[in-house]
Amino acid sequence: MPSDLPNHAYYRACEGRWRCDFDFAITDPAAFRAAPLAWIDRQRIESVVNWARWAGPFHFITTVECKPHGEVLHTTRLRKFGISFLHSAETITLDPNGRDFTLRGSQRYWPTGLWHSRSITGHGQVDETATRATYEFTWFGTRMQQSTLRHEHGVDIVQHSPFSRGTQQLRRAGALPGGRGPR
After folding, report:
1. 2, 124, 126, 171: which has the highest count of C-beta atoms within 10 A?
2. CA end-to-end distance (rounded Å), the chain
């Protein structure tokens, strides 16, 4: 992507493979109980919270690949015990205005991910410094809001749904803790 527009610069700087421990919590149990979630989705969310409490955090792995004509391919995996509990693949389309973007893709969740996927849609905006982005997208049929901060050590993510909060500190895959070079 040859453009110096903020949305192009942001994603070019994020290109590559990233990882971190997945930090996620149900922050409002009443809102979680009231959310219009399918039984299996409720079980998936609770299992991520409970298994992390018992056996340590899940691994959050994401990739960003910039394509010509203002498109970005983005993938995410949530892994534990050698199993992908979530796999998503999205195409992010960068708006020519230099700030906005839309995303469309699909998500697969364990254990039904072999035969069933669901669509994900959303939109967002990159700030004029190309270091911060905000997103709104569908997640288990609810609205998820995400903010990111790109800095010299990685990308910090904060996610909110009506009943949850997640914070991730993505670092380039292969880097040692504290951002000290490749592994």
Report:
1. 126
2. 29
For 55-74, b where at least 16 C-beta lie within 10 A, e where not — what string? Answer: eeebebbbbbebeeebebeb
Token code pair at residue 156: 């910090």
Q: How far is CA 14 from CA 44, 153, 173, 176, in A?
A: 29, 11, 12, 18
CA angle 60, 64, 128 (to 5 degrees): 110
- Render each residue's pLDDT in the chain as its tens digit; 183 residues: 457 899 999 999 999 999 999 999 999 999 999 999 989 889 889 988 998 899 999 999 999 999 988 999 999 999 988 888 889 999 999 999 999 999 999 988 877 666 678 889 999 999 999 999 999 998 888 899 999 999 999 999 999 999 999 999 999 987 545 444 444
